[in-house]
Amino acid sequence: MAAPANDLFLKACRGEAVAHTPVWFMRQAGRYMEEYQAIRKSHTLLEICRTPELAVQVTLQPVDKHAVDAAILFSDLLVPLEPLGIHVEFVKGEGPRIDNPIRTEADIDALRPVDPHESLGFTLETIRLLRGELRVPLIGFAGAPFTLASYAIEGGPSKDFARTKALMFDHPKAWHRLAGTLATCVEDYLLAQVEAGAQAVQLFDSWVGALSPSDYRELVAPHTQRILRRLGETGVPRIHFGTNTTGLLQEMKKDADVVGLDWRVDLDTQWDALGPSVAVQGNLDPLALMASREVLSAKADDILRRAAGRRGHIFNLGHGILPQTPVDNVSFLVEHIHRATSSG
Fold it and tell me: Catalytic site residue 40?
């Protein structure tokens, strides 16, 4: 497959010099865009994910509208759970709901092996189609074992992850068996995405900030690092992202090329602590996109000041774009970052 016409994102992932700081946004395709809302009037989220032509269309919408420097595959973190035998549905106003959550060791033993080429082939076809359309790099992604497990155990979103932690603390062998099964699924899924044409991958551990550093090191890190190490054999950049992860970042950087920072940390302080061996992605508060343009540009400039022109900075939010975000503010921010960092 041909290299993208705009490869600034990939260069930044590798710590190379770039003509301007590349920009992309988590959830850059989705509910804040009228074009997406029009598609959702006749299709569910999972229908879009499972229909390559629709997933391609939605993935391209923000690339065409905002001139971002990378596209991220439109899908959902929970898509791989269904072939494992965990039924997921999305309830309006509530989010994902699982009607057969994992509650016993027998539930863990009943999980099925997943061949992504067979049961997740729609995602791989979406990637192949996108590579023929895009002039910017395509990012593939998957949820990390802890985040997937937390949904599967809790039965949906959770504030305290009580059931998940109960399994981790009281039944560590069963936890490691579950996390290992999920790690195999995620590893195979991401490798298949790279084989299909994804030029970078992001491992989302969105909820792992709920853990202490010691629990993360003992119960989660072995599984995520195994995934990242295997992906390292492909040569594509590996981005590791979570929220509320200030105390975990030193562990999360292992076997990653890029560490995603949320908005709760100062980018310069954390980058200094992480060291020059990794690139950094982030870290604007998503709510800043709803502020006045004067405030938005000032907050973006503060992040650029903290990055200080260092190689390896990818501008992004500290989490995903929110549904009520003004579309024009997204375009304004991309243009502002490009203009403010242009070497030409």
Answer: yes
Provide the b/e sequence for 221-230 (b: ≥16 CB within 10 Å).
Answer: bebbbbbbeb
* DSSP codes, 227-246: HHHHHHTTT--EEEEESS-G
Q: How far apart are CA 291 and CA 325, in angstroms?
A: 10
d(CA 256, CA 277): 9
Q: Is 36 a catalytic residue?
A: no
Furthest-apart CA atoms within the chain: distance in Å = 61
Catalytic-labelled residue, pool 7, 32, 50, 151: 151
**Cα–Cα distances in Å, from 136 out to 8, 66, 72, 193, 199?**
9, 12, 10, 17, 10
Q: Mutual orientation of helices 52-66 and 121-131 as an angle, nearest 10°?
A: 40
Q: Where are the domains of the chain?
A: 8-341
Q: Determine which one of 7, 27, 189, 216 is catalytic.
A: 27
For residue 244, give both structure tokens. Answer: 């509320």
| Residue reference for tokens 């999920």 | 182
The three-state secondary structure class of 290 is: helix
Residue 216 annotated to the active site: no
Helices 162-170 and 145-154: angle between axes, nearest 10 degrees: 110
User: Is residue 97 annotated as part of the catalytic site, yes or no?
Assistant: no
Enter the CATH code of domain 8-341.
3.20.20.210
302 has catalytic annotation: no
pTM above 0.90, yes or no: yes
**Quick one: what percent of the chain has pLDDT higher than 70?**
99
Instruction: Write out pLDDT tens, residues 134-183.
Output: 999 999 999 999 999 999 999 998 999 999 999 999 999 999 999 999 99
